[in-house]
């Protein structure tokens, strides 16, 4: 797309997929083939994704929420256990722990980045232990594509005997900086400091599968649990069969129809249709990441004169695959509340969104845990606004958004 040509549609949502003819051809090929689900395209997608992030295993599933739930199940979380979750995240990060009966120990975040740090996690652990919960895991969120400090959180987890489930649903293609004296960067999903990492392929994410998710891990036992629970809890491995008389025939071979269910799982399978789109999009990941970085740089340059009234949220380092472009706005100084700003932007063809209402404010969690004082999360929420960012945008579109903000600021 030419840099000076507006994108289509003229209204800019905060995010949307970028689909090319080769993506459509990949999906069409599956539709014309023999396998619409439980076929070879899912396996190819898993293998390609594992290679892309440097993990031993990648298990595809229906969506990012399913990925998080499967990860919690793989840790065998139970009632009385607790998971530390940053308050600034989507509902699914917390809900996945509750699906297993575990409690959620909400952690505060840096009001400049929206990320949970080690001190935030330690404070949440202390509150959880005071409540009598067994803290089992940390669930850092790599918010907007920016990585949480995995070395600091990894050191904490090791010292406390905790597992880490990375919520990397915003961060397909992101690389984190090493902060413990190491050199270079590490791909999120490599699980070098975590048990598992969870990803989403929703249309607004870095790559799209329509819906879809993935869990990566380097632990063989966790991988077996993930694969079992993604498909009803079924086991087809003869070595794992418990009812030997029913499982094996007179020849000693396993009966070809036989399967067992040691414990219930879910139908969280990804279809080959979705996998075909995800696999095609994965081949464009580097291009998508570069384009998002280019637009972030253009936003930063154009909006710099509006600071501190309107400014890009803080940075955590590393090489983020930017999922969101979040600005922090001093609405009081601007003389408009956020609803008015969003309405004025929409009138100029610019969509926006809020990421997120801190989860501890949701009625369910407020009723369960009472009111929590998390000033970083509340400070983030009071100021944040996500602006349009997706690969199909042209440079012209970044200028449109910036011009709309300039008019609002009287610049």
UniProtKB/TrEMBL annotation:
InterPro entries: DegT/StrS_aminotransferase, PseC, PyrdxlP-dep_Trfase, PyrdxlP-dep_Trfase_major, PyrdxlP-dep_Trfase_small. GO terms for molecular function: pyridoxal phosphate binding; transaminase activity. The active site is at residue 205. The modification N6-(pyridoxal phosphate)lysine is found at residue 205. It holds the Pfam family DegT_DnrJ_EryC1. Belongs to the DegT/DnrJ/EryC1 family. NCBIfam families: PseC (TIGR03588). PANTHER family: DTDP-4-AMINO-4,6-DIDEOXYGALACTOSE TRANSAMINASE, TRANSAMINASE. This is UDP-4-amino-4, 6-dideoxy-N-acetyl-beta-L-altrosamine transaminase. It comes from Nitrospirillum amazonense.
